[in-house]
Amino acid sequence: MLSPEARESLESVLDLGCGVQYFREVLRENHCNPSYTGVDLYPHHKDNILCDFNQGEFPYFSKGSFTLIVCAGLFEYIWDLPKFIERICKLSPKLILCSYNFTNVSGIDNKIWVRNRLRQEELFNLFLSESYVLNIYKTHKRNLPTGYFCFCKKELMGKI
């Protein structure tokens, strides 16, 4: 989903909810070798930083430490998604790559997802309020229609 320009400028990645660090493999397959930090609730990979976002835990990182923050398959499990999105935007990455199953689109619920999921407009407005704009939006339909999004800082729109 990242443009060639975005891939070229990729220096550092923070992968929140990284699991077995699948995205790290995707980066390597695409000949990208940025510094990579994975964070997850479980020690699926030996160098994952462990934390529970729903208990208010979040590792400390300096503002601007990451070019890209990835949240793939994570938002459906976060109890206070507006607060979580505010927190990741405060780290000021150039790009935020995420996925989400909207409450008003899928019509199907996974029993372990949070019950009060957002509508598309609500999610997009959370990023807009933090000066991030939608750069790319794709969907993939298997059992559930999942939206994949890339948000970028407003001032970088059209440049990466």
From TrEMBL:
Top-level taxon in the UniProt lineage: Bacteria
- Specify whether Hydrolase is a keyword of the entry: no
Gene3D superfamilies tied to this protein: Vaccinia Virus protein VP39 (3.40.50.150)
Chaperone keyword on record: no
Gene Ontology biological process: methylation
Q: Which GO molecular function terms does the record list?
A: methyltransferase activity
What keywords were assigned to this record? Methyltransferase, Transferase
A family per Pfam: Methyltransf_23
- Per its UniProt record, what InterPro entries does this chain match? SAM-dependent_MTases_sf
| Protein name, per record | Class I SAM-dependent methyltransferase
Organism of derivation? Helicobacter turcicus
The organism's lineage is:
Bacteria, Pseudomonadati, Campylobacterota, Epsilonproteobacteria, Campylobacterales
